[in-house]
Amino acid sequence: MQRVGTQDAHSGGGQGGLGGASLADVTDDLPSIGQVVETMAFRAGFNTNMVIAGTTLLGLAAGVIGVFALLRKRSLMTDALSHATLPGIALAFLAAGWLGFEGRTLPVLLLGATVTGVIGVLCIQAILRFSRLHEDAAIGIVLSVFFGAGIVGLSYIQANAAAGSAGLNKFIYGQAATMQPPDVMLMGAIALAGIVATLLFLKEFALVCFNDAFAKVDGWPVGIIDLVMMGLVVIVTVAGLQAVGLILVVAMLIIPAVAARFWTERLWLLVVIAGVIGGSSGYLGSVVSALLPRKPAGAVIVLSSGAIFIISLVAAPARGVIASTVRRLRLRFRIAGDHLLERAHELASPALDRSEVDRLSDVRGWSRPFRSLLLASLRKRRLIERGVRGAVTVSQAGLDRGARVARNHALWEQYLVAYADIAPSHVDWSVDQVEHVLSDQLVRDLERQLAARGITIPGERPERQAAPA
């Protein structure tokens, strides 16, 4: 089985060694369990291990630094930056050839990419400062112009320096398999430097990301901090060019940070989780590419981070789709149940016949499945009891809850009329949305403020005041 960075019958022009295999054969043989374990345990060969380690470290750095690009709302800026590196690669190759050096040397190419990447960022800042264009327009201009210039440069190189230009276009999509150990070590060193710098400036970055106006007033050099932040983005972008390419490297910066945002509200934990997701994406993508040599490592790395993002989007405990849906359903059942209990309180009768339940369902827009689930939920909470022929009997606890909701309704209604100068005929809808979520402390505050104006709301009946919520 081929490993990343090795040469065998699956790579280059080695199809002739396949013994009659079709040139159109582009399938991969599924690896064995042993091969999977060997690759994941860094026992698949030196070159493969170096690539996996390098891309893992790159993903870690991209995740950590990408958090601040996301919080600073610079996601599109990173896209423009990655595209702006292409003309630098072409110019560095040409300049090295004119000076008599080897143009394909990775440090030379990365230096050129860094220079034009920084120039691209400065061009965006200049457009924003000296024109009335918005940031999205400035980013679109710089991205397209620089990328177009890079394509023209590569076309010129291929036409005039074909002998030494093979593989330059790999920087567009990336080709991790071509990386040599010195390239991986350089990429790892750049990524490590970016991580260390981010941790050293963590406090300053957090201040600028969350409240740059306060930072300016307090005397912090916001412009310099911003440039340092974008400089780190440049470093990671340049480091990832050969592994994932300038088109996909933006995904390594943004997707881990966005995925981590679903799991926490705390900055330091967000940085840690984003780094773990980025490192895991780089590791998994490289392992899969090593086991299936026809699958490009850069694209598989991005797909791995995308898979982790989808898992985070769906399954995160606080902000995921499932958790949000459950919370919305619970709130909807709670509000609907309060309406039913409040109606029983208004009728001063614990018995609600089927016609009354049907009428309330029509007014509130409850479907039959929803009403069935609602009644089951109320029975589980022992707020109602099953009646005969579709009728329900509200328990004492249910009547107490209905009385409390009705009183909250009256309190909030009087507060809006007295303090917000809203006509009594216009407050019912707003009150209907709020009456279910008033806390005990807020109810006491409303009572105190209304009493100061001589407005009193009748209390609950004495026998119900001790009932639990």
Overview of this protein structure:
A three-stranded antiparallel β-sheet has the order 1-3-2. Residues 1-24 and 461-469 have low confidence and may be disordered. The chain has helices at 33-40, 46-71, 75-98, 106-130, 135-160, 170-173, 181-200, 202-210, 212-217, 222-239, 241-261, 267-291, 297-315, 321-347, 354-364, 368-380, 396-419, 428-434, 440-452, 462-465, and strands spanning 351-352, 384-386, 392-394. The chain is built from 20 helices and three strands. It is an all-alpha fold and 469 residues long. The chain has two domains: 28-316, Orthogonal Bundle (ABC transporter involved in vitamin B12 uptake, BtuC), CATH 1.10.3470; 320-469, Winged helix-like DNA-binding domain superfamily/Winged helix DNA-binding domain (Arc Repressor Mutant, subunit A, Orthogonal Bundle).
Task: Summarize it.
The protein is an all-alpha fold and 469 residues long. It contains 20 helices and three strands.
Keywords:
469 residues, mainly alpha, ABC transporter involved in vitamin B12 uptake, BtuC, Arc Repressor Mutant, subunit A, 3-stranded antiparallel sheet, 20 helices, 3 strands, elongated, disordered N terminus, disordered C terminus
